[in-house]
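Hi C.,

You asked whether I'd gotten around to modeling the 188-residue construct. I have! Everything is below, sequence then structure, no commentary in between.
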Amino acid sequence: MANEAELYIVTPRTYIVRTPTAVIERRLEVDVFFAEVDLGRAAQAEVAADRVASVRFPPEWPGDALAGFPGWLERRRGHAAEPWVGTVIDRDSLEAVGQMGCTALPDADGVVEVRYATNPGQRDRGLATEAGGAFVDWLLARPEVHVVVAECLVTNAASVRVLEKVGFTLLEEREDEEGRLLRWEKRG
C-alpha cells in the first residue's frame, strides 16, 4: 500500500509534497488561499525547525485536476489506499505551481501511470521537467515500482518534450475519445 506521508521531494527549484486534506477541502471552497504545508525533513533547514511553511494556492491551481478533487477527498476521508499524489511548490515564492502523481497504486507487475500539470502562468519555466524527473526517480527507487508509464496527446508538444527530457521511451501511438495519444514508459 502506498504511504503518501513519505512524499517529500526537493529539487533545486521545487518541493513536491503530499497534498494535505485541508488544502483539498479549501480549494473546493475558494480560489485563492494560503495554507500551512509540511515540507518534510529535507526542507527543515530552509524553512523552519518545524518544517511547516505558508504556501499560496492561486486560482489556477491545480488546473484540470480540480475535477477529480471531490472523489479524491471522498477516498481519503474513507481511509482508502491512495496512489502517490503531490503538490509542486516553487521554493522561492512558496506558491503551488502544479500537481503530479500516479493514477493508481502499482499493479502486480510494478507498473504505475503518472500525470502532471503546471499552472498556465508557470509553464515554460522547466518546472514540469525538473519536478517530473525527480518524482519519476523517486517512484523508480521504490521497491514496488518497476515501470512508470505516461500518456499525452500527440499535439501536446510541451508534454512530449518533458517526457523525452525525463528519459521516457515512446511505446505507441493510439486513438481514443480524447484524440491521438502517445504512450511512454521509463524502467527502473
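If it helps when you're writing up: The radius of gyration is 16 Å.

Thanks,
B.
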